[in-house]
Amino acid sequence: MSGESLERYFRLIQGARDKRPSGRLWCPAADVYRTANGWIVKVDLAGIEPADIQITLDGPVLRISGSRRDGICGEGISHYQLEITYSRFEKMIQFPRSIEHATVERDYHDGLLILRLREEEAAGQKGRARAASPK
């Protein structure tokens, strides 16, 4: 790296320290599991209030969105290092078939959003199987 490049690099780092993160969109990590009657989705949303999370189903797509806010930084406080993203987020998960009629059970614990998507088909088939079997 030349002397000029190195100097430019350090100016960029200093400039980044003097500014808050932009309103860029970030994408949280998620795990998706298949179950006998639907899906389980776990999303890492540490530091986000449950009321700030929106969940929508559209065909085969699950969309989870919201925002994480920095409640500490304010008037008279400056930062030294920022690695956590404070802005809007969006996570879109594509399923192999439509899930828009699935029932959604939602749990939020220790920064993990856990969604249980129970497919209507699976629920209906299970009910019909019980009705067909003699007691």
Structural features, described:
This protein has a domain at 22-70 and 83-122: Immunoglobulin-like. Mean pLDDT is 80; it is low at 14-21 and 126-135. The protein has helices at residues 3-17, 120-132; strands at residues 30-35, 38-44, 53-58, 61-67, 88-94, 103-109, 112-118. The longest helix has 15 residues, at 3-17. Strand 1 (30-35) and strand 2 (38-44) form a beta hairpin. It has 135 residues and is α+β, with helices and mostly antiparallel strands. The chain has a 4-stranded antiparallel sheet with strand order 1-2-7-6. Strands 3-4-5 form a 3-stranded antiparallel sheet, with no helix packed on it.
Radius of gyration: 22 Å
Stretches where pLDDT is under 50 for at least 5 consecutive residues are: 14-21, 126-135
Strands of the widest sheet, in order across it, are: 1-2-7-6
The CATH architecture of one domain: Sandwich
What value does the average pLDDT take? Answer: 80
The CATH class designation of one domain is Mainly Beta
Shape: elongated
**Largest beta-sheet details:** 4 strands, antiparallel
The secondary structure category is: alpha+beta
**Beta-strand content bin:** 25-35%
Give a quick summary of the entry:
By secondary structure, this protein is of the alpha+beta class.
Features:
2 helices; Immunoglobulin-like; single chain; 7 strands; 35% strand; alpha+beta
Topology:
Layout: H1 3-17, E1 30-35, E2 38-44, E3 53-58, E4 61-67, E5 88-94, E6 103-109, E7 112-118, H2 120-132
Antiparallel strand pairs: 1-2, 2-7, 3-4, 4-5, 6-7
